[in-house]
């Protein structure tokens, strides 16, 4: 099928870009750490972690191509070839492509470790905006995680443009990219904020930023399910994600920024308004989800009936990826 050949070409390009970004990001962060610990050879072992990370992503993209090629068919509609495989057995709770979120978790653990070393070692105080390897390059390098997420998701997405699932995947990539930029802006408080912040307060900023890097794995977990088997779990997972994001990211980020604005007269970040908007949107989205959760799981309806019920929310339709979902 010509579609598979085209997708192979795009898949290879995505893999090349992904490896290039991983190598560039890892090398720059390693340079900061190695330059700070000049008399130690331990930081050089970070290159081993980077190599394992690149190998993991290569294996992930190879596995995704192998799976997506198997489920693609010759029957084309409007120039698009994709024929979902009819499953005789239920999809595993781990999903059909668990390497997607597993590789992201592995990557984030390495990234967060490097960021923690950089910000906890006193390295930040020695950086100068006049140098090439200054705070600006550090922020840009960390923000490259958004491109890693984008390429990872696109490496698992062969859905047709205009379908609900394609729109959902695109929105997830956009929202996650903004969240990563928000985390980088939040970390910049430790670079450009007040110098007399207490150590516990700095640790809180670092921990909250790290949590925001881990949360996208929940969305990757949802996207690893290509059929209606996710519907039984999609509703509670969505509620958990929204609650965690609001309680662990938006509200704490907003609180810290308001505190710095009012107590230290720091310039208010525009991401402060993003946090407010995100809280309002989350509350509006959570209410109908909680009502549906109450009807399906807390009332006397059976779990079996909920499993085979048709999806009624955009997210459930988008996650299905089945043609029949478009008729709902």
From TrEMBL:
What residues form the membrane-spanning segments?
15-33, 45-68, 104-124, 136-153, 204-223, 235-262
Looking up Pfam families in the UniProt record yields:
CECR6_TMEM121 (PF14997)
Q: Secretion signal: which residues?
A: none
> Mind listing the UniProt keywords for this protein, alphabetically?
Membrane, Transmembrane, Transmembrane helix
Similarity-based family: Belongs to the TMEM121 family.
Q: Protein name, please?
A: Putative conserved plasma membrane protein
Species: Panstrongylus megistus
Q: What is the lineage of its organism?
A: Eukaryota, Metazoa, Ecdysozoa, Arthropoda, Hexapoda
